[in-house]
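User: Some background: our group keeps a shared notebook of sequences we're curious about, and every so often someone picks one and asks for a predicted structure to add to the entry. Today it's my turn. The entry only has the sequence so far, pasted here. Could you supply the structure so I can complete it?
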Amino acid sequence: MNVPQSSLRGVRGGRNIGCGGGEEEESDGGALALAVLCNKTLFPNRIPITIVLTPTVVRFLERGQIIINKNV
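Assistant: Of course. Here's the predicted structure to add to the notebook entry:
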């Protein structure tokens, strides 16, 4: 069964999307703006979580000898 290559690619706005061609779709920056907004909004939640989890993660890594604490 022969399927034409043009039917394997989606067309959006007159440009090919999907695999092949090496063309990247242009963005208007909306995704970046959303990412920055989420980052700034969640900042008050991320800091306490980081402070609480860091010692636990370090102990876990030291027990598994993934990191070596030379201050002991």
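Suggested note for the entry: The mean pLDDT is 76. The two ends are 69 Å apart (CA to CA).
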